[in-house]
Structures are given as C-alpha cells and as structure tokens.
Amino acid sequence: MKVNVGEILTRRARQNPTMEGVVDVASGRRFTYTEVNERANRIGDALVRLGVRTGDRVGVLAKNGPEFLEAFFGCAKLGIVVVPLNWRLIADELEFILADSGATSLIFDDDFTATVEELHARGDRTAVRHWIQIGSKSRLGFAHGYEDVLAAASGDEPAILAEDDDLLHIMYTSGTTGLPKGAVHTQASGYWASVNGALTFDVRNGDRYQVCLPMFHIGALYPAQAMVHLGATNVILREFDPHVAWTVIDDERITGTLLVPAMLTFMLDIVEQVKPRHEHLRWAMSGAAPVPVTSIQAYTDMGIPLWQLYGLTESYGIGTASTAEQSVERPGTAGRGYFLSDVRVVDAELRDLPPMVQGEILIRGPHVMKEYWNRPEATTETLWFDQADGSTWLRTGDAGVMDADGFIFVQDRIKDMLISGGENVYPAEIENVILGHPGVKEVAVIGIPSAKWGESPLAVVVRADDSLTEADVIAWCDGKLGRFKMPKAVSFIDVIPRNPSGKVLKRVLRQTTDAVAAE
What is the pTM of this model? Predict the structure, then answer.
C-alpha cells in the first residue's frame, strides 16, 4: 500500500464532511473537515502558482493556528516539504535553518514581521523567494497575503504527487548541544506514526484534542496529524496559558491533551483557583522530561489518567509509553514500546544488555526518520543497520535500563553524563530523587569542577517551599543515592531554562549558574 499523509485529510473530509476539524481558540474560528481540506488544497495550489514544485521546501514561521495544519496537509499532497520553524529563534538562527534546508518559500504570521523583514533584507543568504503573510493583506511590500492567495487558488482535490519514501517534512532538532540538524521524515514514517498511535492509545472517532505545545515541535504536530487520521477535532491554543487551557478543557469538552511536565505543574498550581470540571477529559499525556510520581498521582486523584511518553524528533516523537498505573507502580519508567515500535538497551559495541544494566536506548519502527538533511556523517552515527536482522535502529543518545518486563527507564543524555571519582553519574537519576521532596518544584543537575573528584553534581532547584535549604535537599538524598551520586552543592533559581519542547537547557545553566566549588 502506497501512502501519502496529505491524503489522510482528503479521506477524513470524505468520511466526516460536517465534523469540526479545527477550532481556533484565539480567533473563535471553526472549520469543518470539508473546509479544512478545501483550504489545504488552496494553499497547495497557491504555492504551485508561485512556482513551488514537488520536492521544494517551504518554511512555516507561525504560532499555532489552522494555517499551520492547512499548509502541512496541503504541501504533503503535492510532495512539497514543510520545514516547521521554531519562532523563539532569532534571525541569525532562522537564517541558518532556511539556508541549510534550501527553503524557497516562507509562510509567516503577524508576530514575526520584524524578523521576516530582517531576513528579507539579507537577500541571497537564503533561497527564500516567496513570502506569504498569514491574514488578508500583508503589511510588507514583498509579501503576499495568505487569504489573498487562497482566494485566487483552486480548492479542488489535486493529484497526489508524493508517496512512501518521498519527503514529508524536515524538523530541526532543538540543538541543546550545538547547531540544529534537520531530521527528515517521509510520507511513510508520518503515516505509520499515526497508525502506531492509533494502535497504542484510546483515541476515538469524535474525540476532541487540545493542542497546547507549539506546532513547530513534533510533540504538537504529530498528535495533531494523528487526530485527523483518527477522526478527532483539533482544538488549537495559539500559545499555552494554564487558565486558558483549563477553560478550554471545560468549554470545548476536551477528551485528551499533551503537556510537558512544566505545563502540568502550572496547571496544578491553579487548579484550586479555577476548579475545572474536566468531566470529558479521559486522558492526558506528557513527555520531553520525566514526570514526577507526585504529579502523576495528583492527576490520577483528579480522575485524569496521565500517560508518560518518551520519544525523539528523529522517531516522530514515538518511542515508549507508560500508563498512569504503570508509572506509579514503577516510578521513573517511561514505559514499553508503542505497538509498532521495538526498543532495546545496548552496550558500546551495540550488544544487547541484561535487565537493569545501563546502556544506550535504541528504537526501531516504521516511524523512524530517513536521515539528517545534508548530514551523512551524523546520519551514519545515528542510524545503525543491524546486519543480524536486516533492520535499522535509531541510536537515541539516551542512557537507560530495561527491566525484565520490557519497561524502559531513561536515565540521561549520554553526553550529559558526568564522571565523579572515576564513576559515571547520570543527572536524571539524581533529579528523580530530588523531585520526590515536597519542597521542590523543579530541579536540574549539572556537573561542576572538583579538584578532588574531577566533577561533582550540583543540584539547581526551583523551590515549591521558600524555607527549603541546601541542607534539606542533601539530607533528602542521603540514603537514596550512592555517596558518589550525592549532590555536593545546591543552587536555588527562579526558573530553569528550557527549550520549547520542555527539555532543560543545561548548557545555559552552566553558563548562568555561579560556579560552586565542591571539594
């Protein structure tokens, strides 16, 4: 069977023509699946009229809205490759991604006109020649208005011009350790990601899903795409706000959502103030970082089962999943592989390890990326062809263990590992212990220089209780961690820096946290 992700929308509009496909919370606009599909066809046709061809790349620099999904599905039908852009980046960073991807067109919204003007003024530093501003009219002389080009284009169903191994999108990794790399996903990896989710989770036709994460991130774009596949309504928040999120959950009868751990915390902080009904909410999901058992239990007590997920941009956001019950029974677990996903833990020679022996986590499945864009060496380092069974595995770069029942416990990024007195220390293990303290809201552990041990762990803590002291944190860890893993110092901070997907930016912490001598 040859597959095309854009055709998912075509078939959904045929199957459920009058069902709400998209609700845009910010503007109040509502679109049936028939309307979403027609608008997707129009933006695809508009791009073709501008000279964009199959295989060309189109950047999208926009906050969450219907236009993001329209462009994604419209381009997918024609084999035009979408490049979602992180709108928190500055012009220099965006220029790098646009130039690296070779994007010839850019769709953007009003919030980024100043940045786009700066990019346009740089001329040939990028390949962008067509600029489309979301809205009826563009305020920039060189840009087309999104609604104007839609009005002049055809809403008829186009011929499907891409399938299977043809490119779908290039999503640039967050670059926590250096310049971002473009993870290339195909029509097939996108299609099977949707199927994989459908076979793993309880999503039903007619469900209503709240999109909270920014859609340039796989944690938002993937489930939004999957909801179209499954016949659910995407209710889109332009940006996350905990008060708005609770209100929308009630008013729009939301049945499911995905939030990173920090968002879960923000929503818990105001739950007594808001007193949401949330009677339709059957489940919530979280990923990007370990979810404290206390948070899982708090949501469970509210009658909201909280799934914990683990995955990467390179795996279309898919890897492992753990139900609320499993996460409470096995604290720290990220769960077992999705229905169509295989997971293993290997040593440095890529040999399988026994249960509870630490190694690198590998993921296999039809949802894994094709390659890194223009990075053959990085692709070779990350995608490993196992000659024993003829399959390709994604090397995640994450350290973890697997128990005898196949549950994965993610312990850290291998590159974040620190060596103290000759012993490997993984910060996530320490963080999980400290998160159990009721006075701790958030924590990140980094290594600091030590004349005696080489490196020692420093715990950077956001307090939930202003009276919490360094001695309290260290005492809490005593007896729960090996002596060499014990934090030697604690630094308190108001906010832990994170990227848009919720991952802690430890390089920023290292730059901004005062050096603490730990002897």
Answer: 0.84
